[in-house]
Amino acid sequence: MASGITAMILAGGQGTRLGVLTEDIAKPAVPFGGKYRIIDFTLSNCVNSGIFRVGVLTQYKPHLLNAHIGIGRPWDLDRMGGGVTILQPYTYETGNIWFRGTADAIYENFYFIEKSDPKYVLILSGDHIYAMDYMDMLNYHVSKHAFATCASMNVPLAETSRFGIMVTDLQQRIVEFQEKPLNTKSTLASLGIYIFNWDYLKTLLKHDATKNDSTHDFGNDIIPEMVKNDADFYAYEFEGYWRDVGTLPSYWEANMELIQPLPPLSLYNPSWKFYTRTKERPPAFFGPEAVVLDSLVSEGTEIAGVAEKSVIFQSVTIEKGASVKNSVVLTGSVIEEGAEICNAIVAENAIIGKGVRVGNKVFAPNREDPKVYNSLITTIGYNAKVPDNTTIGSNCVIHSGVSKADFDKEVYESGESVWKKEQQTDHT
């Protein structure tokens, strides 16, 4: 067990680029990988690294996330003198309720960190998929006599505008930082994973809290200020698997990577397990005519049809004559007889009616939000009910909670959307 270090997981983000998947839940609570939720990977990394004092800072629609974490039992975080604590915004003397930024979220929870009087604070994001031993990073931090260390990795040049980009000297000391630059000087990207000496971080955050022109964010304010002041701030280059699943294509692709013959992230490594809270369910059942190829299938699922190159979550039903290909189907969804699903994400408890056709290879810009929905993937929301014999093209959106009465035609071309009737006037 690592003593002297407290982990703080920033888990309050909405994740707007995940569209309907985060309409009603926070991004860290989005299901991933057949049975997990995104935050499970960060929590599991903590306990696998021997870090057992963890604060989880929530904000946007936190109810499901709070219930999922609970007292931390699945991660062995239900313990005296440590464990996991949910930290939500609260009203205080100045009247603020919401965290104003990532740095402010840490600042407003000084009391939690101070209780354990740590030497180091590990700051993490709760919305990435990766496996990392944080103790390797801490050892690097100590060896450099650093005030702060940032985990980093090289990314393709075309993706640098999505990240904070760092320029380092020969000793890996950070000498320049650009937040999401259009013209970059480097491809070394921040992963949003930081280790700070606690005394140093306290000074930084107290100073930032007094600045009226600050956004109180690590990437926008704290990190540039450290570089400007020539701090002992180092980059720790991480060579393992790390994915930002903040867009629908990246979420779909990361799930698809799990079904490769040699997946870049193994869910089966006995020395680095990923833990989650889940209901007890019976084993998966495959009927006499079922065909399952290159797929992850979780417990409680019943397949009488075809599942190919797909990630099938718990208690999914794929009826006789139905097929699911190149898709992610979340817990409790039903694919009825004769339906064909291709290149889709089907959210929890959706019902896809008999003879429905979802997905084709004809791309068209999405009419609702082309920045969020911008691929061949069609997304079907939570508890949606698609009526029998409906045909839905690519890059379509079926919003959460729609029922058969919300569909006014049988064929939806690529790029179209379906809302609940009471919402349709807002989008027409």
Describe the protein's architecture and organization.
The protein is an alpha/beta fold. It is 18% helix and 26% strand. The protein has nine helices and 33 strands. Strands 1, 4, 5, 6, 8, 9, 10, 11 and 12 form a nine-stranded mixed β-sheet that branches. Strands 15-18-21-24-27-30-32 form a seven-stranded parallel β-sheet, with no helix packed on it. Strands 16-19-22-25-28-31-33 form a seven-stranded parallel β-sheet. Strand 4, helix 2 (63-69) and strand 5 (83-87) form a beta-alpha-beta unit. The longest helix is centred in the middle third of the chain and has 12 residues, at 198-209. The chain is globular and about 65 Å long. It starts with a strand and ends with a helix.
Write the layout of secondary structure elements.
Blueprint: E1 5-10, E2 31-32, E3 36-37, H1 39-48, E4 53-57, H2 63-69, E5 83-87, H3 102-107, H4 110-116, E6 120-125, E7 128-130, H5 134-143, E8 148-154, E9 164-168, E10 174-179, E11 188-197, H6 198-209, H7 218-228, E12 233-237, E13 242-244, H8 248-257, E14 285-286, E15 291-293, E16 296-297, E17 302-303, E18 306-308, E19 311-312, E20 317-318, E21 323-325, E22 328-329, E23 334-335, E24 340-342, E25 344-346, E26 351-352, E27 357-358, E28 378-380, E29 385-386, E30 391-392, E31 397-398, E32 411-412, E33 417-418, H9 421-424
Parallel strand pairs: 1-4, 1-6, 4-5, 8-12, 14-17, 15-18, 16-19, 17-20, 18-21, 19-22, 20-23, 21-24, 22-25, 23-26, 24-27, 25-28, 26-29, 27-30, 28-31, 30-32, 31-33
Antiparallel strand pairs: 2-3, 6-11, 7-13, 8-11, 9-10, 9-11
